[in-house]
Amino acid sequence: MREPLRSLLGILAIATLLAAATAAFRPGVRALLRDAPRADETTLAAARDHRGPLLWLDARPAADFSRAHIPEALPLTAEEWDAQIVAVIQRWQPGTRVIVYCDDRACGASRHVAEKLRREYQFDDVRVLHGGWHAWREASGQ
Amino acid sequence: MKRVEIILRLALAAVFVAAAVPKIADPAAFHDAILSYRLLPASLSAAVALWLPWLELCTGLALLWPRHRAAALGLMLALTVVFLAALGQAAWRELDIVCGCFGRPASVRGAAYLEYLGRDLALLLVTVWLLLRERNTHTAAGR
């Protein structure tokens, strides 16, 4: 076998072995591969089982929110933050679990909104909906 | 010219190693970044988020080893083309993505794409030039 090809296969093999070792020894990585909810996420089932006040926040663009959204959800996006945060603060009360969602796993908007609420507004129970709006639509058969 | 070649080789290796380390430390953040490109399903992108940083690290380190230099440059060329294609399709589809290029999540949209595409293009040019130099050296040595 030609030398560069042997080297190339060697590099690929070592990278694969190291990745496999990471998956074997880091529990967080295994959860990632299983697509399990992360520490700051909640599933739809867990949200429905939650006892206590819930506040749904929709971090999708305004046009998507207007078309359809989770009942009683309030819109909250980075673009219109100042105008929308007032209603959120009015609705929020101590002990409320806030659940933020955007389209699906691929959008980062819900995570950004959740982080900002924790960091700048000291909301202590803010989660991101695992699977987002897509998960809600699937569960409600839409 | 030899000195330029060594400097560029070291810089390229450093870029790949620097890009890999934060992703290895936080594969979940890199997974989010990959998902934002809307190219792969979640299960496959998780495997890529785990494997790709190690490949970048191994490739970066292999570039410093003369025996494996040609293979490392070949892999870097392939990776950079993949990165450019992923960025290009996201720019074409006007997606708001998280770059994930050097671990620290950076939001990319609109005109910001130009900076990232330009950076990847520069990486591609350096890699191609080093690859051509490598081939010329081997050709000369083989005569």
Q: Any overview of this molecule?
A:
- The complex is a heterodimer of chains A (142) and B (143).
- With 142 residues, chain A is of the alpha/beta class.
- Chain A has a five-stranded parallel β-sheet, with helices on both faces.
- In chain A, helix 4 links the parallel strand 2 and strand 3.
- In chain A, helix 1 packs across helix 2.
- Chain A starts with a helix and ends with a helix.
- The model of chain A has no long low-confidence stretch (mean pLDDT 90).
- By secondary structure, chain B is an all-alpha fold.
- Chain B has five helices and two strands; from the N terminus they run ααααββα.
- Chain B has a two-stranded antiparallel sheet with strand order 1-2.
- In chain B, strand 1 and strand 2 form a beta hairpin.
- The mean pLDDT of chain B is 89.
- At the A-B interface, helix 1 and helix 2 of A face helix 2, helix 3 and helix 4 of B.
Topology:
The complex is a heterodimer of chains A (142) and B (143).
Chain A: H1 3-25, H2 27-33, E1 41-42, H3 44-49, E2 54-58, H4 62-67, E3 74-75, H5 81-91, E4 97-101, H6 109-121, E5 126-129, H7 132-139
Parallel strand pairs in A: 1-5, 2-3, 2-4, 4-5
Helix pairs in contact in A: 1-2
Chain B: H1 2-25, H2 27-36, H3 42-62, H4 69-92, E1 97-98, E2 107-108, H5 112-142
Antiparallel strand pairs in B: 1-2
Helix pairs in contact in B: 1-2, 1-3, 1-5, 2-3, 3-4, 4-5
- Percent of residues in helices of chain B: over 70%
Low-confidence stretches of chain B: none
DSSP summary: helix tally of chain B: 5
Shape of chain A: elongated
Helix vs. strand class of chain A? alpha/beta
Q: Walk across the major sheet of chain A and give the strand order.
A: 1-5-4-2-3
The chain-level structural class of chain B is mainly alpha
Summarize the amount of helix of chain A as a percent range: 40-55%
- Helical element count of chain A? 7
Shape of chain B: globular
What portion of residues of chain A belong to β-strands?
Answer: 5-15%
Main sheet properties of chain A: 5 strands, parallel
Rg of chain B, Cα atoms, Å:
16 Å
Distance between the termini of chain B: 21 Å
